[in-house]
Design goal:
about 280 residues; alpha/beta; Rossmann fold; 8-stranded mixed sheet; two-stranded antiparallel sheet; about 35% helix; globular
Length: about 280
């Protein structure tokens, strides 16, 4: 817990940003499956959908359209519960078909309101699903919350890696550590002949992680099953917990726990002083 965070966030142990730089790389799918894997492991978990213009986590977590959060003391939103996770999204506050025709400062203000006026309670992890880019939303989160670290999601494609680099550089500028890289759509396995092909290129996630002195935390294939399950509101971790995809998300969760909580416990006699 942190007493340096503003009111509303002080009972949250770790705030983790899940970012990509580029849209369409599976960042939200990664966020929801990671959060669910953490919850299944017994942690208290929340998810904030920070994509003001295109919120999607409600759909992905099976929260019915038109479901609005209750309020408490005319000040706090009560997050909606889904699969054991506390969820807050702009999708819960506006009509599903209403576009957010807002300039950057208005979107940043909406993020700040959801972040600081949601009654998150005591959480081990709050995952923030970031929108693409490196603008007002990203800066507002880093300024208003003490972010423990960021997970960068990419595909092996050169265009995605280019934007992922920008995301990493942004977090470096605001002194948020990058915990590692998740590579989505690494390969495609043909459902008819089982031929495996690296459609978007190979090795991009590993190279990106090595370039910035971090690690590749997980690698996932281009999978119709992952997409179908998350579109249906029952992501892989809850719908098919023994599947290879679900187990990869579980391993990702374990890797983050080790990075944020476990390293000092695993090697208590070793102290590293970084200037």
């Amino acid at each position: 817990m942190s007493d340096t965070r503003p009111e509303g966030l002080q009972d949250i142990k770790h705030i983790v940003a899940v970012a990509s730089g580029k849209g369409g790389v599976g960042k939200s799918t990664t966020t929801v499956n990671l959060a669910l894997a953490m919850a299944q492991a017994g942690f208290k978990v929340g998810v904030l959908d920070a994509d003001i213009y295109g919120p999607s986590l409600g759909l992905m977590l099976g929260i019915a359209e038109g479901n609005h959060p209750e309020t408490m003391q005319e000040k706090w939103f009560l997050p909606i519960q889904a699969h054991g996770v506390s969820v807050m999204s702009m999708a819960f506050l506006v009509d599903a078909n209403s576009p957010m025709v807002w300039r950057g400062p208005m979107a940043a203000g909406a993020l700040q309101q959801m972040l600081l006026q949601t009654s998150w309670g005591e959480l081990d992890y709050l995952f923030v699903d970031m929108p693409p880019g490196t603008g007002d939303i990203q800066l507002t989160l880093c300024q208003k919350a003490q972010v423990s670290g960021a997970v960068i999601v990419t595909t092996p494609q050169d265009l995605a890696l280019l934007d992922a680099r920008k995301g990493i550089e942004m977090f470096k500028k605001v002194n948020v550590p990058v915990l590692g890289v998740v590579e989505n759509m690494s390969t495609h396995v043909c459902s008819q002949c089982s031929h495996e092909e690296a459609i978007f290129g190979a090795g991009g996630g590993v190279a990106l992680a090595q370039e910035y002195g971090t690690e590749l935390l997980a690698s996932l294939p281009l999978s119709m099953e992952i997409r179908i399950l998350v579109d249906g509101g029952t992501p892989s971790v809850v719908a098919e917990p023994t599947s290879a995809a679900a187990q990869t998300y579980v391993q990702l969760a374990h890797a983050l726990v080790a990075k944020l909580d476990g390293a000092h416990q695993a090697m208590p006699s070793i102290s590293v002083d970084e200037d």
